[in-house]
Design goal:
Radius of gyration: 28 Å
Distance between the termini: 6 Å
Structural class: mainly beta
Number of helices: 0
């Protein structure tokens, strides 16, 4: 007698979180990895997301750039860079451009400054201030590819050549690059000039920046402070030492419309961060506080609306508030008008990133199941508030199977804390008021099962819902049936009942 599969269809991948609707059960993420897509729902269908974190550690998610319709980020456990739309949460993995090693595969940052998610990347490394993702090639010299997400073809990809230029950053659609000089031995050395590269009428345009300090070198790298948006950039150059001999910085504004560099601040101290919004430019250090000027009038008086008090954190100005984010610490907002302080979050990850609409994005929340990329906005009442943008999924055990019957949902998962060879199961009771509300009970532990998967090349636990007065769910297993009178197979199929503490599962039926 031969061995026969019991059917085809059902689960084809292991999953890590479940979205359950009144009329259906829907798998929304895979393999214990971060969620990648939203689930479309039909009109009138309600949904509940069941989360089952395996640890209290939140998943790291670093925001790298904010555009008009989406944002660029990295997520622990995921491959490379991700672009997520604000409107629907749809996420695209950014791929390596043609002509590079690993072309078509997830793009992987390669420099020591930000190859790892735990490292802070300099502003503009992968773009900032627009729906443009910059993908520097491995050398971070020439060239750099610019990818614009969206469209049926997956977006537009353009490449800018940068001969004898060092990459500084991309802001909007403009690439800022530093010139190289040649030393006596022929090796490239940092130059004093900057150039702007972009596309105009489908052709690459290169402009030399004017107005820069002739005696100072812009050194690319993680220690060179800069920020920018689609209209311009702020760059910090080494300045004169202060009265104590400590190094200071002179800050210049680079206008992309004119390709002109103008000094706007001097004497900024150590621990420097730069801030640029739609109408203001400025700098911040914990010791000196926040210094601002009007962006429309660079010669206007410099103001210090927030005095230095030693508060560390990466700054961004949102409306009339200075938002300070301490990596893995609190997110606070300080009023520019009266110094009022408001705590927005007690836990965060990474640095804040200014968005083109004047808001800022930051990762944070209260727990593993309440962890989000969030938007800081100034509300109608003039106070700062948070808006949830995209949920960061918790770390979960890979889910391998499920069975739903008459309001009883059983989930199978690989839990090394329970067994290294069998799948753990748990049961929840689902209830609904008929149309608008779906609730789930806490999960109760069920029996471990040694379920098998009938789908070639797939890892799963084949299960079927079978509830009558209590859950009597069934699963597919194999057993030795080569004794006399048996099928002759050492791995014959049979469907067994999950015992849930009642002892050896009853054999319901087998195959021949």
């Amino acid at each position: 007698m031969g061995r026969h599969a019991l059917g085809r269809g059902g689960l084809t991948v292991a999953v890590s979180a479940l979205s359950v609707a009144v009329a259906a059960v829907t798998v929304v993420s895979g393999g214990g990895e971060p969620a990648r897509a939203a689930t479309a729902q039909t009109a009138g269908t309600t949904e509940i997301l069941l989360q089952d974190p395996r640890m209290e550690t939140t998943r790291s998610d670093r925001v790298l750039a904010a555009g008009e319709t989406g944002f660029l980020h990295r997520q622990a456990g995921g491959a490379g860079l991700l672009w997520t739309n604000y409107e629907d949460g749809g996420t695209t993995t950014v791929t390596t451009p043609p002509g590079n090693a690993g072309a078509g595969q997830p793009y992987q940052p390669t420099t020591t400054s930000c190859y790892d998610i735990s490292a802070t990347c300099p502003s503009g490394t992968f773009g900032q201030g627009a729906d443009t993702v910059a993908l520097p090639h491995r050398s971070y010299t020439e060239p750099v590819s610019l990818w614009t997400p969206g469209g049926a073809d997956g977006g537009t990809l353009r490449t800018l050549d940068m001969p004898r230029l060092d990459y500084v950053g991309t802001y909007g659609g403009t690439v800022v690059a530093a010139e190289q000089n040649t030393s006596v031995d022929g090796s490239p050395q940092p130059g004093t000039g900057l150039e702007l590269l972009d596309y105009v009428d489908g052709k690459q345009r290169t402009r030399v920046v004017t107005g820069g300090p002739a005696d100072k070198v812009w050194k690319t790298g993680v220690t060179s402070v800069r920020t920018g948006d689609a209209k311009g950039a702020l760059l910090a150059y080494p300045g004169a030492a202060d009265s104590t001999g400590a190094a200071t910085f002179d800050i210049h504004y680079l206008d992309f419309a004119t390709a002109e560099l103008t000094q706007v601040f001097s004497g900024a101290g150590s621990g420097l961060s730069l801030s640029l919004s739609g109408d203001r430019i400025g700098w911040y250090t914990p010791a000196a506080g926040l210094h601002l000027r009007s962006r429309a009038d660079l010669a206007a008086e410099e103001t210090v609306p927030v005095a230095g008090n030693g508060t560390a954190g990466s700054p961004v100005v949102v409306g009339n508030w200075l938002v300070l984010v301490a990596d893995r610490g609190p997110v606070t907002a300080v009023s520019l008008t009266d110094g009022t302080t408001k705590t927005l979050l007690t836990r965060s990850y990474g640095d804040p990133v200014a968005a083109p609409d004047g808001s800022a994005l930051v990762t944070g929340g209260t727990s593993t199941t309440d962890w989000w990329v969030q938007r800081v906005v100034q509300g109608a009442d003039g106070t700062p508030r948070l808006e949830k943008v995209a949920k960061v999924p918790p770390y979960e055990n890979p889910k391998t199977g499920l069975a739903l019957s008459r309001g009883s949902l059983r989930v199978a998962e690989r839990d090394p804390a329970v067994s290294s060879t069998m799948d753990a199961t748990s049961v929840r009771t689902l209830t609904t008021n008929g149309s608008t509300t779906l609730t789930a009970s806490d999960a109760t532990a069920g029996d471990k099962v040694s379920a098998v998967c009938p789908y070639p090349g797939t890892s799963c636990s084949a299960m079927w819902g079978n509830k009558v007065t209590a859950p009597r769910d069934a699963y597919l297993e194999t057993f030795y049936d080569a004794d006399e009178g048996g099928s002759g197979l050492s791995d014959a199929d049979r469907v067994a009942r999950v015992g849930d503490g009642s002892g050896v599962p009853d054999l319901e039926f087998g195959t021949e």
